[in-house]
Amino acid sequence: NAGVTQTPKFRILKIGQSMTLQCTQDMNHNYMYWYRQDPGMGLKLIYYSVGAGITDKGEVPNGYNVSRSTTEDFPLRLELAAPSQTSVYFCASSYEAGGGETQYFGPGTRLLVL
Amino acid sequence: QQQVKQSPQSLIVQKGGISIINCAYENTAFDYFPWYQQFPGKGPALLIAIRPDVSEKKEGRFTISFNKSAKQFSLHIMDSQPGDSATYFCAASNDYKLSFGAGTTVTVRA
Question: Among A110, B50, B59, B69, which is least packed by CB within 10 angstroms?
């Protein structure tokens, strides 16, 4: 199993540009999550999904959108990139709910908005 | 606001020493408390976890101590090794979502 894979690894965006961060998991997990990690701030939940076709907002959803058309894929869309979105983005998945189930993280996407 | 407060922000320990990281929470609905370990350039990975009905859990050199009445929990790394140098995050959950602490960067000097 590859686990959770993310592409790209690194990207530079200009202010106002858009992009999609890709996330795929091959563990047949129902739950998937997007986090952003900023220095000294831990990980903040952006969006999560409890299954194909079902998504919901996390703690910091503004400026982002998600979709979940399949169990495996959970892309994160940035519209009109802003410098405040410079961060490292992690996708994670778990078999069931987070209360007791391990979340498996991808290697991250480092995004720089200039 | 940070639902889980973690300290210290960083610590340096000699090889063979003990590293202690503390976390505190306010939401009494939290019922699962994992610790994640993250190496540079990698995603976090689960290290050890505890539920509030247990006061201590040990796995190898890693121990979680849990104080439900004080709403605090801590990670102890015994006999610290250079390979333990990483960032450690405490977290808490009561449903799908994990709330993470800000992280502690541990450096183990040989």
Answer: B69
- Asked if B9 reaches chain A (Cβ–Cβ under 8 Å), the answer is yes
Candidate from A99, A105, A107 with C-beta closest to B93: A99
How far apart are alpha carbons A40 and A58 in whole angstroms? 19
- A74 and B CB contact within 8 Å: no
- In one-letter notation, the amino acid at residue A6 is Q
Q: Which two tokens stand for residue B109?
A: 């000097």
Contacts of A97 in chain B (CB under 8 A): 95-96
φ, ψ at A5 (rounded to 5°): -115, 145
Q: Cβ–Cβ contacts within 10 Å for residue B40, how many? A: 8
Q: How confident is residue A97, by pLDDT bands cut at 50, 70 and 90?
A: low
For A41, B35, B81, B107, the CA distances from B15, given in Å and listed in that order, are 28, 21, 5, 10
Pairing assessment for the beta strands A109-113 and A87-94 based on DSSP bridges: antiparallel
What is the pLDDT averaged over residues B69-74?
A: 96
